[in-house]
Amino acid sequence: MSYRGRRVLVTGADGFIGSHLAEALVRENAEVTALALYNAFDRYGWLDEVDVEVRSSMRLVRGDIRDGVAMHRLAEGHDVVFHLAALIGIPYSYDSAQSYIDVNVSGTLNVLEAARAHSVGRVVHTSTSEVYGTAQVQAIPESHPLVAQSPYAASKIAADKLAESYALAFNLPVTILRPFNTYGPRQSERAVIPTVIRQALDPACDAISVGDTTPTRDFNYVADTVEAFLAIGTADKLEFGRAYNTGTGTAVSVAKMIELVRAATGANKPVNQDQTRFRPENSEVRALLADSRALRAATGWAPRTELKAGLATTVAWWRDRFAKGKVRADTHYMV
């Protein structure tokens, strides 16, 4: 099914994946409403970096999914809602668990209620592979037990179950996309790949500081994750209320990823393990590897980008940020 002329709302459109998805939807000729978190700086997050012609084709809205009244107003008249707005930083969830419940659980409830009230044709709720905890089997199917090894993971499990309940109790056409570790341009340094790339390229860094390098991850390039969103937003063979994994089916250790980044950047800096970057002992997720057969069967989706190619594109983006003075030296922040 085409997105041409379809009215699509993207929550969290100012974020990493959300901005790429909103951009892709415009190119698919959808009528896009892009929700960004309200701020006092007159900014729309990463949407400010999108091509001007594409950005001008979006309806840009500032708001907060914690505001149920605002969500009811915003959902009206839309055919599809892609719900990506969330707090996602795992370390911060240890210190501020209540905020994760407020945004990820209560905010999701507001989106679901709004979609239900206005008979939205489809809701795609964004989950995370973190809900599985450390893999008990490899590769991880959607039937794997849900294990909350962080308050963040607990909040996403609760949000997923809300989505499931609205499908079962109210026949809301909501489906759950569960991306495994996504990387690419525009990702913040809360994630391991961008923090490694930034340090590899930054002349102010004499070494690459990381936490535990032994966990393995199923790394997915952002364009492939966006294609999964586009596919699940229109597929007609889906089971509502259930989750669908999206991943490459290949696991790579953090240590191996760092070596690939060093090769892509030409950096020969030493790698230091910083104990302050380690998760609490029982909170580290040791291994994540996706079984995405259900998504492929329902939509035909398949990843296209190998890790080396995706890292090369991401490194090129970071080089451009440095060249334009959009990375502050001696900090972990972009401007």
Question: What's the SSE blueprint?
Answer:
Elements: E1 7-11, H1 16-27, E2 31-37, H2 52-55, E3 59-63, H3 68-75, E4 80-83, H4 90-95, H5 97-117, E5 122-126, H6 151-170, E6 174-179, E7 182-183, H7 192-201, E8 208-210, E9 216-217, E10 220-221, H8 222-232, E11 243-246, E12 252-253, H9 254-265, E13 271-273, H10 293-299, H11 307-323
Parallel strand pairs: 1-2, 1-4, 2-3, 4-5, 5-6, 6-11, 7-10, 8-13
Antiparallel strand pairs: 9-12
Summarize the structure.
The protein has 335 residues and is an alpha/beta fold. It contains 11 helices and 13 strands.
Number of E-state strands: 13
State the domain count. Answer: 1
Percentage of helical residues? 25-40%
For the largest beta sheet, what order do the strands appear in spatially?
A: 3-2-1-4-5-6-11
Q: Give me the CATH fold name.
A: Rossmann fold
SS class: alpha/beta
Number of contiguous helices: 11
Q: What's the CATH architecture?
A: 3-Layer(aba) Sandwich
Largest sheet entry? 7 strands, parallel
Shape: globular
First-residue to last-residue Cα separation: 39 Å
Return residue spans where pLDDT drops below 50 for at least 5 consecutive residues: 330-335
CATH level 4 superfamily: NAD(P)-binding Rossmann-like Domain
